[in-house]
Amino acid sequence: MIRLLLFLFCILMQCTSVSAQTVTKTTHKKAVKTDVVTTGTLTIRKPEYICISTDGDKDQLIMDGTKFTMTMGGRQHVTDSKKNPQFATFHTVLKAVINQQAIPQSDDMTVVTKGNTTTVTIVPTGKKRQLFTSFVLTVNAKTKALRTLRMNGRGEDYTEYKVE
């Protein structure tokens, strides 16, 4: 009986494996001379959970299934990739990266592999007033591990997360 419980516990731990890594967030605003740089953690739990938390958990980017929650500067934005086409491809790509699968192709993205790095650029189509104009992810081509996530805003503004 004890062996059976240990076996089930091990299977459960593999299915909900959690990894935490250090991440550096850079926020660039064209109107501000100096970039804001903070550190935090990236937590990944398979199959569809990712949390990037910086500045003592004050700023967070969470994908939990199809639901995205972003807390920045005390403001919280919530959307669902089923309802928001801007996040549909982003969700598909992040899910593939989390599960170390091949990145699926889509009309609103380009995938370029150079050496050991795969760069995925997602330019959402649809609404004119979008929170982000594009997403750029770099992934280690061999291990399928996320290296950077850059969310480009209007003008030259962006927020970039770099996994250490």
Structural class: alpha+beta
Shape verdict: globular
How many DSSP H or I helices? Answer: 2
Strand order of the largest sheet: 6-5-4-3-2-1-11-10-9-8-7
Order of helices and strands: HEEEEEEHEEEEE
- Biggest pleated-sheet summary: 11 strands, antiparallel
Assess the beta-strand content as a share of residues: over 45%
Estimate the helix proportion, in percent. 10-25%
Mean pLDDT: 85
The low-confidence parts are 1-17
> Termini, distance in Å?
42 Å
> From the alpha-carbon coordinates, what is the Rg to the nearest angstrom?
17 Å
User: How many beta-strand segments?
Assistant: 11
Description:
This protein has 164 residues and is an alpha+beta fold. Helices cover 17% and strands 47% of the residues. It has two helices and eleven strands; from the N terminus they run H-E-E-E-E-E-E-H-E-E-E-E-E. Strands 6-5-4-3-2-1-11-10-9-8-7 form an eleven-stranded antiparallel beta sheet, covered by helices on one side. Strand 5 (67-72) and strand 6 form a beta hairpin. The longest helix has 14 residues, at 2-15. It is globular and about 35 Å long. It starts with a helix and ends with a strand. Residues 1-17 have low confidence and may be disordered.
